[in-house]
Amino acid sequence: MKTVRFRISLPAIGLALCATAALAAPDATPDTNLSSSDMLSRAKDSVSKMQETVRDIAQLQEQAKKQKDVIKLNCVNDKMVQVKGHMAVADTAMGNLNEAMGKGDDDGRRHEYQRVSILFQKVLVLGTEARNCVGDDLSYVGGVQRSEEIDPSIPQKDFTAFPLPPVDTTRPPLATAF
């Protein structure tokens, strides 16, 4: 009964993603009423956490390589490529944030802070997905147990097996006299 496993693991994945979003919410909320120094410190904290996620995904890649599981490795590699792309955009956004702060551009500062916050949330989700690629689902405990009961009132006879008609083995008459 493989469907039992999917019924258990899909809600577990959903809970893991919600938990990640809930953990990221206090730091990643794009509060545009922060001072410049608070925005900069929160953005730097978000980037450092994103770098930790990159290191975690690299460890997951090594784990998948040791297991010699190509499917897991491809999945983790896909997540790593996406995270590296987000990291490149976040680095650009950090540079633009510093530049906007130097110019005193409040709108530019808010915009770049929001970009870093959104990228932080995306990277956290990708980190969770990478952990799910290799099977590190912490909310799922234990193996799947299967049991089945057969109603004793069901007859044991196989109703799909019909008796075959007898085969006619007589030779047909000749069509011509040649």
Supply the key terms.
178 residues, mainly alpha, disordered N terminus
Order of helices and strands: HHHH
Distance between the termini: 65 Å
Biggest beta sheet attributes: none
> What average pLDDT do the residues reach?
81
Gross morphology is elongated
Q: Number of DSSP helices?
A: 4
Give start-end ranges of low-pLDDT stretches. Answer: 1-8, 24-29
Q: Which percent band covers the strand fraction?
A: under 5%
Structural class of the helix and strand makeup? mainly alpha
Task: Compile the SSE list and pairings.
Blueprint: H1 2-28, H2 36-67, H3 70-103, H4 106-133
Write up what this structure looks like.
It is a single chain. With 178 residues, the protein is an all-alpha fold. 68% of the residues lie in helices and 0% in strands. It has helices spanning 2-28, 36-67, 70-103, 106-133. It starts with a helix and ends in a 45-residue tail after the last helix. Residues 1-8 and 24-29 have low confidence and may be disordered.
Brief summary of the model shown:
By secondary structure, this protein is mainly α. The protein has 4 helices and no strands.
